[in-house]
From TrEMBL:
Entry protein name: ROK family protein
PANTHER family tied to this protein: BIFUNCTIONAL UDP-N-ACETYLGLUCOSAMINE 2-EPIMERASE_N-ACETYLMANNOSAMINE KINASE, ROK (REPRESSOR, ORF, KINASE) FAMILY
Pfam families given in the database record: ROK (PF00480)
Superkingdom, taxonomy of origin: Bacteria
Family: Belongs to the ROK (NagC/XylR) family.
Length: 294
C-alpha cells in the first residue's frame, strides 16, 4: 500500500504518516501546547503555507517512500482552492494546493498534494476505524463551528453547518452572518454570543437543574441538529451518522433520536442510526492520508 502523509489545519496543525489505511506511529502537533487554540488565526496565509511545509518535511524524515500528502482544511474547499474559511479568514481565496505543492518543490520535496474539507477527512478516518470504507457514512463535528463530512466523497459544497434549520428572524448568530443556520444555534461561538452571561457548559449544566431558559435552549440545540440530520436523510437516504468534536459532551442521544424520528416518518428512510464517538484529531489525520492515496 502507498505511504502518505495526512495533515490537518484547524486550531493547530496535526500531521502523521498513513499506510494501509492506518496511522504509522504518533502524530505531531503545532504548537506543542495544545491549549493554544488561536496560534494560527492571525498568521498570513503565506506563513501558514510555510508552517504546513515545515510539518510535512519533519514528518517525511525517515520515510523516503512518501507518495502523496492529504491536507485537511476548514471551510469550503474545492479543487485545491479555499473558497471560504470563516474560522481562518486569511485563507479565503487561497490556492492552497498549488501553494503547498510549489513550496515543497522549492525545498526539494516533490509529491502529489490533495486538499479536502476537515470534516470529510474525519469521515474517511472514521470509515476506516469502523471498517466502513465500502459504504456511506456521515459525520457531524461539533465544536467552534459545525462541520458536515461524508464518505465516500461526491462533488458538492456540503456546508452542512450552514443548513437553514429555523425561519426565526432573530436567529443571526452564525459567524457567516446568515440567518437561521445550524451553526448559529449549535456553534460554540454562537452559544457564547447568545448567552453573554453564561458559558456553554454552564447553560447545559443549568438545563439539567431545570432552569427554564437553559432547558428551552437545550431542546432548540437538539432540534436544530435533528432537523439538519433529517434533511440529510431526506436528500441522500438513511444510514450511519457519527457525532464527534468537543461539544458532543452536550449531546442527549435519546432526545436527539426522538426528534429525528418525529421528523423522518417515511418507513424506507427510518433505518438510520446515530453514534457519538470520541473526538480525535488523529482520526482526521488518518482520513486525510487515506484520501491522499486514492
Amino acid at each position: 500500500m502507498a505511504k502518505t502523509i495526512g495533515i490537518m489545519l484547524t486550531e493547530g496543525i496535526e500531521a502523521g504518516v498513513v499506510e494501509d489505511n492506518a496511522l504509522v506511529g504518533a502524530t505531531t502537533h503545532f504548537p506543542e501546547n495544545r491549549s493554544e487554540t488561536n496560534a494560527l488565526v492571525e498568521k498570513p496565509h503565506e506563513d501558514l503555507v510555510e508552517l504546513l511545509c515545515d510539518r510535512i518535511l519533519d514528518i517525511a524524515q525517515g520515510h523516503s517512500d512518501i507518495t502523496a500528502v492529504g491536507l485537511g482544511l476548514p471551510g469550503l474547499v474545492r479543487q485545491g482552492v479555499v473558497e471560504e474559511a470563516p474560522n481562518l479568514p486569511q485563507l479565503k481565496g487561497a490556492k492552497i494546493q498549488q501553494a503547498v505543492s510549489f513550496a515543497l518543490h522549492e525545498r526539494g520535496f516533490d509529491t502529489n498534494v490533495k486538499t479536502i474539507n476537515d470534516a470529510d477527512a474525519m469521515a474517511a478516518g472514521l470509515a476506516a476505524q469502523f471498517g466502513k470504507l465500502d459504504r456511506m457514512i456521515r459525520v457531524w463535528t461539533l465544536g467552534r463551528g459545525i462541520g458536515y463530512g461524508r464518505y465516500p466523497f461526491i462533488d458538492g459544497v456540503w456546508e452542512g453547518g450552514h443548513m437553514v434549520v429555523t425561519l426565526d428572524d432573530k436567529e443571526r448568530y452564525c459567524g457567516c452572518g446568515g440567518r437561521g443556520h445550524l451553526e448559529g444555534i449549535m456553534g460554540h461561538r454562537a452559544m457564547r454570543m447568545r448567552f453573554l452571561d453564561l458559558e456553554p457548559e454552564e447553560v447545559f449544566e443549568m438545563a439539567k437543574k431545570g432552569d427554564e431558559r437553559c432547558l428551552q435552549f437545550k431542546k432548540l440545540w437538539h432540534k436544530a441538529l435533528a432537523a439538519a440530520t433529517a434533511s440529510s436523510i431526506h436528500m441522500t437516504g438513511p444510514g450511519k451518522f457519527y457525532l464527534t468534536g468537543t461539544n458532543t459532551r452536550y449531546i442527549d442521544l435519546p432526545m436527539l433520536e426522538n426528534y429525528v424520528h418525529q421528523m423522518v416518518t417515511m418507513s424506507p428512510l427510518q433505518s438510520f442510526s446515530i453514534e457519538v464517538v470520541k473526538d480525535s484529531t488523529g482520526t482526521a489525520v488518518r482520513g486525510a492520508g487515506i484520501v491522499a492515496g486514492m
